[in-house]
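yo

u said u wanted the structure for the complex thing, so here. seqs first:
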Amino acid sequence: MDWECCWDRDVIEMGDCPNIHEGDEDLLASRRRRILEKCSDCEKFRRDLGRFNDSGHPLASVLDLVHGEYQRQRNQIHSLVSFLDNKTIEIRFMHELGVVLQSSVDLEEVLSVALTAITAGKGFGMNRAFLLLADREAGLLKGYLAIGPRNLEEASQTWNEILSNDMDLKTLAQNFRLNKLSTERAKFHDILEQLKVPLSHHEHIAIKALDSKHPLLIEDAFHHPDVDPNFAAQLGVDTFLLMPLISRNRRVGLIIADNCITHRSITDEDMHSLETFSFPVAFAIERASLYDKLQIELSRATEAGKKLKEQQELIVRMESMALVGRITSSIAHSVRNPLMIIGGFARSILKNTPSSDPKRDFIESIVSETQQLEGVLDEILNYSDSLYPTRDFWDVTQLIETALRDTADVLMMRGYASGYSPEHDLPAVYIDFKQISYCLRTVLQSDIDGMGDDRTIAVSSYRNGESVVIRIEDRSRTLSQAELDHILVPFSETRDLGAGLGLALCKTILEKQGIPFEARAGTEAGVIYTITLPTHKEEQQ
Amino acid sequence: MSRLLVVDDEANIRLLYSEELADEGYEVVTAGSIVEATEKLQLGTFDLAVLDIKLKNESGIELLQQLVKEHHDLPVILCSAFSCYKDDFSSWLADGYVVKSGDLTELKHEIARVLAKKAQKANAGL
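structre next:
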């Protein structure tokens, strides 16, 4: 029998077998491999087999049977290999996805990765995906993010871009997050805004998918008995996949994916792969959300800890201040009474001592020295009071008028005239009334010895931004700025200038409360004091 | 002649007040404690009381409250080593407040002012 095929030859030449091409040269001298790999698909071999069948040889039918079975099994193996190859790719992808998801606790990043994975060609290759998240507080399943082209032109552009830049999933997702997240959000804003379903609406197809915890493929959505036509209209496609995101039995959200551009059908295989993908995504989303909440709680706890520390420090400070307060109070009582008695009796004796009495000078010294000591005591006590500022909102006019009334006698005795001109509708100031009153009284009386003829003190108040300024112009004094600055330094020698510790203490007290105090020498004569009082609580330290 | 009750735990202060206020033409009765002041108040009538706030282990504020309750016509001037009481609500029941000083001018002014006010009220029949 003449055979068409080369199966009976040990060695053949290139061109003898129609299935052997360049690169298959090693098969030319290997008959066994040639038969197993090439003959089965060869037309010449099939014709040789037909002739053998026609010969009526008893083995011919057996050989035909074996050949048929060989072909069937070979196809099956090819199919399995192809399946395994796909699964290998899928597992690799899932591994890459898992690595990316596991390494992030940033919700935006997780969502970017998830949606990129669904739509990327190397991922699940869906055209478009919407992510809805469950808002348990609002009781809603709400559209949060979407990805995908809105038309074929945009789709082509995006896919070409992806093809030309062979990026891994992480890079793709980072690229999406950095460059496209906000634009995609804006692009799908209208649809996302409409995608709101109450979690209690168990008849809604989205909630049904969530409740079932399994993916649902919706086909012919516009006529589907379970699909609200509005929902289908919002998505604008008749075939889509609903993929619930469930983590620890909790409804985290839902992914809606479709092929709105290519209209490629969604297979069972797609659904199965996406279902596998949904578990790590749901877990990562929940973890990222919990991490967000944890961060908020952590910052609250840190803030509370900080406040607690401040409170502790305040308590310690208050305790030490209370000690200072008790000590000064004790000094006040122990020192003031003897001073008062010495000074009082000295005055009493002085009253009844004739001016010719040589001892009168001594008594006058006692009177003046005790008077000065009483002044020092007042200043110390006022400073100790300043350690406990008790602030509240006060009327500035009331504050100034009270101080002027309290000092009226002293000023009158010294031949001073005072006047006050307030600006109308001044806001209340947030101050410790007692301490600011003390400072005002001290400033008003600070002019111990007037040097000029013009013995007037003009007080005014006016608004300056969020503050109220008290301006006290003492026209009698003529001091240089250097002398004034010297006076404002506590415990500097100021006796020769005629001022005590008062002004320096005032400055210290006011500055401790964050209230600016300035003393400025007038251009020609006089001194101008300004006290800038806050009108809000925040302005003070 | 106006009759004043001076309450202070310091004997020398009581003496000083007695001397100085007597020179001003007042009849001065002194007490060193709340108990003594209460006894004196029961024995006679006064036109004004000058109270120290810190009376050894007692408080002049307590005496002030007692006077307001039981002798509401009797004006009171608080006299203390501490200026801080001036802003204390509890001291606002008093008709006047003076920080203790060897110079009694302010106290004398305050006594004259309060007595004048009392007289004015009496004349008005209030």
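Residues 492-499 of chain A have pLDDT under 50 and may be disordered. The longest helix of chain A spans residues 268-351.
cya
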